[in-house]
User: What shape does this take?
Amino acid sequence: MENHGFSQVAGASPYLNRLAQRCGLATGYTAVSHPSLPNYLALVSGSTQHLDGFDCTPAASCQSGGPSIFSQTGWRVYAESMPQPCDRHNAGSYAPRHNPALYFTDPAVAGACPHNDLPLGTGGRLPAELASPSRLAPYTLIIPNLCNDEHDCPVSTGDGWLSRWVPRLLASPAYRTGTTALFITYDEDDHAEGNRVYTVVVSPSTQPGTVSSQAFTHVSLLRTQEEILGLPALPAVAGAPSMRAAFRL
Assistant: This one.
């Protein structure tokens, strides 16, 4: 989700707030930079890749040869309103700066992009993968469009989008097997709350109503995901605190 601080979401997103009460909420979670792009890069690599202050489309001057979780495991990105797989151009309510896989030049990642970086629709590949857990990629990133992520539209719009999609995820065989965790977070705040953002943790092992005030960041989230997947911590991630103990993951 996009561009809202913790207090703007707390109490203003009925569905997401209820989900946090049923599952877990990280109240000390902060983004790492401004604007959007460096936060998305940190979410998947532990580093802003020297692109702090930039919101550029992926090109030679705005890409990285560094490692990321995309180079560590099987992955899939589902980007809402993206016109075609692995699209590197702004188009309507689709913004490539919110699609971090496009920015890594590792041949294994770039080569897989046309097959793994896909448009999100109401039907198609994601529902099929959720229905068959063996087909779901170990790491899956779902990116709403510029309206549904609350970048261009109100918080209520994003909350409505979550209220339609999250129940589908939680009702799926992939989640009900007990081996899938869901994380919902915001890329950054609106410069008014020290980059503190609302982050919800959903997993079968998380005690309902769990609240952690520990200082976590996007890098912590990546470390947590690597640990869950049995992956070694990327160099930029090794010093970040894990969220596993706080949320019983």
